[in-house]
Amino acid sequence: MLDGLKNNLRDAIKKIVKSSGIDEELIKELSKNVQRALLQSDVNVRLVLEITKQIEIRSLNETPPPGLSRKDHIVKILYDELAKLLGKESDFDFKSGKQNKLIMLGIQGSGKTTVTAKLAKFLTKQGYSVGVIGADTYRPGALVQLRTMCEKSNVEVYGEPNNKNSPDIVKNGLKYFESLPLDVILIDTAGRHKEEKDLLSEMEQINKVAEPDLAILVIDGTIGQQCFNQAEAFHKTIPVGGIIITKLDSSAKGGGAIAASAATGAQIMYIGTGERIDDLEKFSPTRFVGRLLGMGDIQAVLDLAKRLENEGDDVRLKRISSGKMNMDDFFYQLEEVTKVGSLKGFLDNMPGLSGMVKDDQLDQMEGRVSKWRFIIQSMTKEEKADPDLMNSSRIKRISRGSGWPEHEVKELLKNYKNSKSMMKASKGRQMQGTLRRMGFG
């Protein structure tokens, strides 16, 4: 996804990270590199200039918070400004006790009918009861396609194959679904060129008939800067409340699509990532930008750090941060990390480590964590509290109990001691320390 933008932004970050010092010239160079990266990805010129100006001003004038280097702070500023462009994470705000009506808008070929079916399935999986009205009377086969796709999720589609009056179909469909216990009704409309007055007039009529709770604009992620103009044209006719971007799985021009929200003030809510009916995922600006910059899923890392701190008792935290961590604490941290998911997923989410560790190394790490868990569980309470008690006879007993060779037990003890001293040096607070606690430092 967006490989060109991703690589260019990461190259810009590398120049900052590898520099011997930060000065005004380097910050201006970063600004130009980011400009180039965004423009090549077809982000609107005005938006690019606004973003890079803010990056420059903040990088030159802001003082990094305690514990954060100036280099890291500049990278975080870049992350902040790109995430701000995409808005906040957004979700549907359905009102209970009524049928919530959503109208789907978009240019012909944007994938709107497919997205309507995908969204119907997505919402049913969330526990909502959904009905769909097929009001695209221009494209041959649109109603058949909609019904075929919605059958897979047992969603009923109302349509009138012989009626060419879309507003009437919507009116009749709403009346048909009126007595049914539905939470959401999706209305699929015709998609043609943004400047066709007939289409815009028809949309206005449908809007009056339906009185939708939300208008969702479906945008093709492959068309670049045209997205901005499209979004603006639709928004002037019907206020757009949410955006879904399709075809982001293969787009080199996705930067234009992700900037389309700026034309409407609406949030990107979902993105289509493939052809299957399940290929629709909730859009998170922070996660998206984190992946672009090679910073992984920043929020996942912050959540982990918060949980490690909140769930650990004060005594445990004091032990860890002072370098007096025992084997119980070490085991506790291993368990906490595995709550995030696989180690590969965890490392992919780590700032600066995303994509840096090879798959075969990850497999070795995953196996090591699994071994350590069994070995630690085979220790006595006293041994966990004070691993310095370990001698050859205890190591033999633990080896037999865990089912792993003695050299594996010794390897764990070696890594535990390394982690303990490194945790002391890092005050137990840095996320890099999490890896060191696990013996990968």
TrEMBL record:
It is found in: Cytoplasm. It catalyses: GTP + H2O = GDP + phosphate + H(+). Its EC number is 3.6.5.4. One of its GO terms (biological process) is SRP-dependent cotranslational protein targeting to membrane. Residues 99-294 form the SRP54-type proteins GTP-binding domain. SUPFAM superfamilies: Domain of the SRP/SRP receptor G-proteins, P-loop containing nucleoside triphosphate hydrolases, Signal peptide-binding domain. InterPro entries: AAA+_ATPase, P-loop_NTPase, Signal_recog_part_SRP54_M_sf, Signal_recog_particl_SRP54_hlx, Signal_recog_particle_SRP54_M, SRP/SRP_N, SRP54, SRP54_GTPase_dom. It comes from the Archaea. Residues 1-86 form the Signal recognition particle SRP54 helical bundle domain. Part of the signal recognition particle protein translocation system, which is composed of SRP and FtsY. Archaeal SRP consists of a 7S RNA molecule of 300 nucleotides and two protein subunits: SRP54 and SRP19. Involved in targeting and insertion of nascent membrane proteins into the cytoplasmic membrane. Binds to the hydrophobic signal sequence of the ribosome-nascent chain (RNC) as it emerges from the ribosomes. The SRP-RNC complex is then targeted to the cytoplasmic membrane where it interacts with the SRP receptor FtsY. This is Signal recognition particle 54 kDa protein. It comes from Nitrosarchaeum koreense MY1. The gene is srp54.
